[in-house]
Amino acid sequence: MAMAVAAARAVSRGRLRSLLTTTVNFPSRPCAGAGAGDASPSFFASEFTGPSYGSAGSATSVTKLHLIRFIHASSELLATRRRDEARPQKQKRVKKVDRGPPVEAPYIPPARKRDSKSLSDRTIEIFEGITIVELAKRTGQNINYLKQILTNVGEKIDTEFDPITVDVAELIAMEAGVNVRRLHSDEGAVLEPRPAVVTVMGHVDHGKTSLLDALRLTSVAAKEAGGITQHLGAFVVSMPSGASITFLDTPGHAAFSAMRARGAAVTDIVVLVVAADDGVMPQTLEAISHAKTANVPIVVAINKCDKPSANPERVKIQLGSEGLLLEDMGGDVQVVEVSALGRTGLDKLEETLLFQAEMMELKARINGPAHAYVVEARLDRGRGPLATMIMQSGTLVSGQYVVVGAEWGRIRALRDMTGKVIEKAWPAMPVEIEGLRGLPMAGDDVIVVETEERARMLSTGRKEKMERDRLRKAMEEKFEIPDASGEEGSERVEMPIIIKADVQGTAQAVTDSLKSLNSSQVSVNIIHIGVGPISQSDVDLAQACGACIVGFNIRSPSLPISLAAKQANIKICMHRVIYHLLEDMGKLIVQKAPGMLEIQVAGEGEVLSIFQLTGRSKSKGPDVKIAGIRIVDGRFTRSATMRLLRSGEVVVEGSCLSLKREKQDVETVDKGNECGLVIQGCDDFRIGDVIQCLEQVKRKPKFVSAENGAVRIEC
Ligand SMILES: Nc1nc2c(ncn2[C@@H]2O[C@H](COP(=O)(O)OP(=O)(O)OP(=O)(O)O)[C@@H](O)[C@H]2O)c(=O)[nH]1
């Protein structure tokens, strides 16, 4: 197994290089031609079910061979698909353009040679005008290797200090196997105030739709046109002052999390709708968790204030006890009392949102290439894939080539929120584009590229990268390659948990019990507590935060939810007995703990004689003192640190430079035997001195349960 793991690592590192330099033919493999992509899952299944993963030599070598063949074949599949999809590339010189002042990018230290993270787990930041030298530093790859990829993608540069476009940089980075984040730098550009983008969230039936409808009616456009047919899942409310706010109509909690999980920071402000008669409910708390995790400010709208049973003050107290620091209570979360049906308080809400936006000083670059995020995508029978997006910066122009997530297309039609065809779109505008080749996903970013060829290449490259990552993940799961990142054992890892229980009281009890499992190695972080069954929104939140979900005294999640959790690799622990739950979670925590490095006395010996090695040539260094000892306890190891004690006091500690038995170098000496020993930095042994052999061991914590039912993790 160890060999297989080492092979997996080594091959994984060399895998992408082999994409460029090695041609591996597997005649029996169904990997060529248009069906190549389809062939991969079945190939994977047929090759990887069955073989033994035990430690027997033959089984190990078979496993290793399978692994290497699999990786090469996967690379072949992808290369073949790439050749099929991409058009022939003509050699093109990167134009040297004046890109203004250099972009100040955050410093990312160059990759260490033995990086424990695999390449696909790493994300580097790239920007327009980056050089191959900088890219090599960030990817940790060789300059010549990156130049080779540059040539392969049809580009040429004179020197590695020439600036390259951000698109080319992405192609190279993807080929080198790392993830990228584009810095849409606005350095030097003129920034202008832009409207805030607001999402409305809250518990079911608390009046989100009614509130959006009421706000929609205040739109100037609506007043002018005498009613508006909303076309998109977003709309803009224009204020008499000339300012405007973009409301996202679509994202429920799930869409919000999905977008956040994909890194899209679309929303500036969350409006938390709470019904004044009903008060804080489970989905209110979920919404708070979502907004807090996304670091988005909340404005509370206490709705249905027209109802006789309305009690806004009670709602405020409830929110306060949930940790929302409301303005009335000296905090900075603003609260507005409204009635969506009675259409009261809406002006105040809009004012509050504008004030909040003003405080945030929301600005964007208006000119230059557009950047946007998808909030919704659908397939229209007549018009094909349609994506609704919120503009982030720049100007989007009809007819431009765009890459949206892993899809690409040429904008055939650009529509505003009313469905009117427009020519251009600016920051914070919700627009719909038509002309994509495939359906993107919520949260995908939209970038504009110069040519169709570049759009195709980026889309193909991104799809390939996704496929490679998927295969790698499947492969790692199959071979259970252990994560070496906790090697030092000194850091504290976090364990994010979402708790769902039957009633609030039990949820609180489970929370308190789980907190008792906090330890110096693993910090239990309860990110959300809710009542009721596990929902898609819980799964989304868990995915966004890498959390596991604990269900207590509730029915098992529905099949779609279970499948979604499985697909997202989210662990769900369902229990009805608190002790079982704690035991289960305790095991998980112990598993997750990195382990603490500890010094242990592995052996002890007594100095019986002392020797001196003299007469050495100058080049071989000074004289050396050797202690002749007898091991009285445990075992001595050549690679360990030695400690010399005299009358119970430590004289010196140093690494073992030599360990010999009868003039033979040995790795270990056991109790009862005699040996000769040289300790670094020690030339003063005396008969009767005690020498201890110190070894570093990694100690995992233990789950301990006391008889009174109390539990804890002992480190
Ligand atoms: N009295 C009163 N009723 C309201 C008000 N706002 C909404 N309602 C009623 O509350 C009910 C739910 O309103 P919706 O707007 O559908 O609530 P929602 O939060 O969008 O519901 P979901 O989309 O199902 O989550 C409807 O019957 C509305 O008429 C209000 O301000 N006052």
UniProtKB/TrEMBL annotation:
Keywords assigned: GTP-binding, Initiation factor, Mitochondrion, Nucleotide-binding, Protein biosynthesis, Transit peptide
Where do the coiled-coil regions begin and end? none
In terms of InterPro entries, this protein maps to:
EF-G-like_DII (IPR053905), IF2_II (IPR044145), P-loop_NTPase (IPR027417), Small_GTP-bd (IPR005225), T_Tr_GTP-bd_dom (IPR000795), TF_IF2_bacterial-like (IPR000178), TIF_IF2 (IPR015760), TIF_IF2_dom3 (IPR023115)
Keyword DNA-binding, does the record have it?
no
> For the region Disordered, what residue ranges are annotated?
81-116
The GO cellular component terms are: mitochondrion
Report domain Tr-type G positions: 193-363
Superkingdom of this entry's organism? Answer: Eukaryota
- Pfam families, alphabetically? EF-G_D2, GTP_EFTU, IF-2
Query: Subcellular localization, per the record?
Result: Mitochondrion
**A GO molecular function held by the record:** GTPase activity
Q: Which family does it belong to?
A: Belongs to the TRAFAC class translation factor GTPase superfamily. Classic translation factor GTPase family. IF-2 subfamily.
PANTHER family linked: TRANSLATION INITIATION FACTOR IF-2, MITOCHONDRIAL, TRANSLATION INITIATION FACTOR IF-2-RELATED
What NCBIfam families does the record tag this protein with?
Answer: IF-2 (TIGR00487), small_GTP (TIGR00231)
Tell me, in a sentence or two, what this protein's role is. One of the essential components for the initiation of protein synthesis. Protects formylmethionyl-tRNA from spontaneous hydrolysis and promotes its binding to the 30S ribosomal subunits. Also involved in the hydrolysis of GTP during the formation of the 70S ribosomal complex.
Protein name per the record: Translation initiation factor IF-2, chloroplastic
Record organism? Acorus gramineus (Dwarf sweet flag)
